[in-house]
Amino acid sequence: MSDQARPRRSPAGVERRRDPDRTKERILDAALVEFGEHGFAGARISAIARRAGANQQLISYYFDGKAGLHRALLERWRHVSAGLSRPEAPLDEVVAAFTDVGESQRHWVRLLIWQALSGEREEGDTDYRRAMVDDLRRRQENGEVAGDLDPAYLQLVLFGAALAPTLLAGFAEDFTGLPADSPEFRDTYREQLKRVIGHLSGER
Q1: What is the pLDDT of residues 85-104, one digit of tens each?
Q2: pLDDT for 43-62, tens place per residue?
Q3: Cα–Cα distance between 24 and 44 in angstroms, integer?
Q4: What per-residue confidence (pLDDT) applies to 124?
Q5: Which of 5, 73, 79, 137 has the highest count of CB atoms within 10 angstroms of its CB?
Q6: The overall pTM is greater than 0.90
Q7: What CATH superfamily classification does 1-69 receive?
């Protein structure tokens, strides 16, 4: 029987008595690694269960299988992203925060890249991404971004810049002579991003 086709059954005995929220978080943590390394098609529920130290039945019970688990993981990313996209924070700090997550939690970047390569969208993805553009548009109205820049295309550029050190680590090292995971590269990259974003207002 495939991972997706397993019946959804209530976990028994000790598993029912465990803290369900903590168990769900453990499963999501394990799923992030598995989906990040193998994508949706290559990920295996059995591997996630082993990594989480949980019975496979729990994944069906809590998340209704592989697709539901993947949706829950992407929803978790939206919550992480919302915490980084603070409206009151300067734009350079927001981009730096996304860059930091890409460096410290690389499986998030891999998960997003797998999703992008598949061409598939989960429910709510479009609204979530358009909200990011709306935030840039608000910043533009407040003078933080020059009026001749298109917020939608600028969002694409900034998102790519935040992911670049993780996604293009080899290129980064060849371009700069520094390993992309070194403190020297990270500090310089953040400083350079800050300077680039500082020019977006059109002020010198």
Answers
A1: 888 889 999 998 888 877 76
A2: 999 999 999 998 888 888 99
A3: 17
A4: 76
A5: 73
A6: no
A7: Tetracycline Repressor, domain 2 (1.10.357.10)
Band of pLDDT at residue 1, cut at 50, 70 and 90: very low
Domain positions in the chain are 1-69, 85-204
Q: What are the distances in angstroms from CA 39 to CA 18, 20, 83, 176?
A: 29, 26, 25, 30
In whole angstroms, give the CA distance from residue 202 to residue 183. Answer: 30
Query: Distance between alpha carbon 50 and the CA centroid of its chain, in Å?
Result: 23
Q: 114, 124, 5: which is closest to 67 by C-alpha?
A: 5
Distance CA 48, CA 98 (A): 26
Q: Dump the DSSP string for the chain.
A: --TTTS------THHHHS-HHHHHHHHHHHHHHHHHHHHHHH--HHHHHHHHT--HHHHHHHHSSHHHHHHHHHHHHHHHHHHH--TTS-HHHHHHHHHHHHHH-HHHHHHHHHHHHHT---TTHHHHHHHHHHHHHHHHHTTSS-TTS-HHHHHHHHHHHHHHHHHTHHHHHHHHSS-TTSHHHHHHHHHHHHHHHHGGGS--
- Same fold yes or no, 1-69 and 85-204: yes
Would you say the C-alpha torsion 23, 34, 168, 161 has a positive or negative sign?
negative
CATH architecture of 85-204: Orthogonal Bundle (1.10)
